[in-house]
Amino acid sequence: MNEAASSADTVAAPRPVAGEGETGGVDYSDPDVTLGAHEDRWAWRARLRRHPATHLAWRSAVGVVGSVVTVGGLIMVPAPGPGWAVVILGLVILASEFEFAQRWLDFVKGYVHRWNRWVMTQPLWLRCAIGFAALLLVWGALWLTFVLFGLPGWTPDWAAQQLARLPGLD
């Protein structure tokens, strides 16, 4: 294999932004809304990006799937469950192709990292109180969901009998 062919399959990683530190973010100084072939770490995806037709098809597929997952997660946020995790998964999918989503994902990761760092510096009693408050929030969301929509049909009889003792769930 000649040197030109081997260098075509080698792709440079995105340049870290100065001052990003532990996140090692992407350089957003270019005006493109999508990542270019030279910014892709995976050779197979970089080959897709070199051809306009395959790049458009790939970009469209990633955009549709990422948008559906993100919107589905946003719909799930008020209900108990992994709503925010699904939103972040949708951003991860979109960020694999679109720079705007990569910026949003970096923003979210920065806030989650700062929140985590702050919580871990607090005394144990406060960390336990935060965990208990989160548990109460999930329980309250479950209760409100059951009051508004009733118990799901797949709820086992023993669980339905216990849940029926809660106020508002007769």
From TrEMBL:
InterPro entries, per the entry: Uncharacterised_PGPGW_TM
Pfam families: PGPGW (PF09656)
Disordered as annotated region, ranges: 1-30
Domain of life: Bacteria
Transmembrane stretches, start-end: 56-77, 83-101, 124-149
Keyword tags: Membrane, Transmembrane, Transmembrane helix
Protein name: TIGR02611 family protein
